[in-house]
């Protein structure tokens, strides 16, 4: 079968799976809502962007308050199915934002994980391998523990901390314009350890806010909003679209940097782009959901076993499978008598499964 047709069929099937899992997830909760009602409410919530306006709002930057432009997207809602008022509110305002955010976060983490595993030619790599999650943790915990000392909100602080950590690792590993993969990996491990120590120190001085900080570190999607989806979705999709354009170059890099250079690939430029965009995807996901482990490790690894190592197929299938996986695990996390952070569920499911893979299949460099 032609690669393009195979990619389209696999991606289309996984996209249908994502939609089915999202609709099924929206039926789960303290209030029982049937699938037909959920489907109608979801269609009613489907908005088509119809315009953009910009208003000037005050924002606190450092020690001063400045007016900043804030974009506001206007939507048209083409569906108007009759749905009971209470069910409409529950589905559209409570369940769907959380489910949509879970899908976006899973999409971003699994897509970035597939890139990192190809970049490092190692199936044990994950999106946080260059310190992105640790940097986000420093920014988030600092905001929670010392709100008066940090001039930005929780999510901006986590996002900026994640990007700063990734950029710092890159600068440490860079040697005269070249970035050896082994050096980058070791620098990432060292920076993660250092930032982990910083997080532990801040937790010791967090006082009453320690519980909130620990809850964020566990990874959660509680109280998600449409605003978070609107902020995360464009970043994740745009970064992924560019990464997909570099899928062929990533395939060539698997042959080794010398061979890739011989075949016409600008190796260092390609590595910078792959690192930057995968870091942005991971930072966007971690900033809104905390540290959710194993999604970016397990999902790309399993999809590589199923569809092969060609990143033109592996990247879209991994990202879509990651979306379905995180929606399903978050549904499990909130379906018990007491909700637990989804990061606990992904770790509890992912770690034994990965150990099973290690015992039953040979794991080696790509």
UniProtKB/TrEMBL annotation:
Summary of the function given for this chain in its UniProt record: Required for corrinoid utilization. Probably part of the ABC transporter complex BtuCDF involved in cobalamin (vitamin B12) import. Probably involved in the translocation of the substrate across the membrane.
Keyword Lyase in annotation: no
Family (UniProt): Belongs to the binding-protein-dependent transport system permease family. FecCD subfamily.
Record's subcellular location: Cell membrane
Bilayer topology annotation: Multi-pass membrane protein
Source lineage: Archaea, Methanobacteriati, Methanobacteriota, Stenosarchaea group, Halobacteria
Membrane-spanning residues: 98-116, 128-150, 157-173, 185-204, 225-247, 273-299, 340-358
GO cellular component: plasma membrane
Major subcellular location class: membrane
Gene3D superfamilies per the UniProt record, alphabetical: ABC transporter involved in vitamin B12 uptake, BtuC (1.10.3470.10)
Keyword line: Cell membrane, Membrane, Transmembrane, Transmembrane helix, Transport
Name of this protein: Cobalamin import system permease protein BtuC
Pfam families tied to this protein: FecCD
Superkingdom, natural source: Archaea
Subunit record text: The complex is composed of two ATP-binding proteins (BtuD), two transmembrane proteins (BtuC) and a solute-binding protein (BtuF).
Gene it is expressed from: btuC
């Amino acid at each position: 079968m032609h690669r393009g047709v195979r990619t389209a069929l696999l991606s289309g099937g996984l996209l249908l799976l994502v939609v089915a899992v999202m609709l099924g997830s929206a039926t789960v909760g303290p209030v029982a809502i049937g699938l037909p009602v959920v489907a109608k409410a979801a269609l009613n919530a489907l908005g088509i962007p119809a315009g953009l306006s910009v208003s000037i709002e005050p924002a606190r930057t450092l020690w001063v308050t400045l007016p900043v432009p804030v974009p506001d997207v206007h939507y048209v809602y083409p569906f108007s199915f009759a749905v009971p008022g209470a069910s409409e509110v529950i589905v559209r305002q409570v369940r769907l934002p959380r489910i949509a955010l879970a899908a976006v976060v899973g999409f971003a983490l699994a897509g970035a994980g597939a890139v990192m595993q190809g970049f490092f030619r190692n199936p044990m790599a994950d999106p946080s391998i260059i310190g992105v999650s640790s940097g986000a943790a420093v920014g988030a915990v600092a905001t929670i523990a010392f709100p008066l000392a940090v001039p930005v909100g929780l999510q901006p602080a986590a996002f900026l901390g994640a990007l700063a950590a990734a950029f710092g690792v890159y600068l440490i590993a860079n040697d005269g314009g070249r970035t050896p993969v082994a050096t980058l990996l070791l620098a990432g491990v060292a920076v993660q350890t250092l930032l982990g120590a910083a997080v532990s120190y801040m937790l010791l001085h967090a006082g009453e806010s320690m519980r909130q900080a620990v809850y964020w570190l566990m990874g959660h999607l509680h109280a998600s909003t449409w605003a978070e989806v609107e902020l995360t979705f464009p970043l994740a999709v745009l970064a992924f679209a560019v990464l997909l354009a570099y899928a062929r170059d990533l395939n060539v890099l698997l042959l080794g940097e010398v061979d890739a250079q011989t075949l016409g690939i600008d190796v260092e430029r390609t590595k910078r782009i792959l690192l930057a965009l995968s870091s942005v995807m991971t930072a966007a996901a971690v900033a809104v959901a905390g540290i959710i482990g194993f999604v970016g490790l397990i999902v790309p690894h399993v999809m590589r076993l199923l569809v092969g190592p060609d990143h033109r197929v592996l990247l879209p299938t991994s990202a879509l499978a990651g979306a379905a996986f995180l929606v399903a695990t978050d549904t499990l996390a909130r379906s018990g008598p007491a909700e637990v952070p989804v990061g606990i569920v992904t770790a509890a499911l992912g770690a034994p499964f990965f150990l099973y893979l290690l015992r039953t299949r040979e794991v080696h460099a790509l």
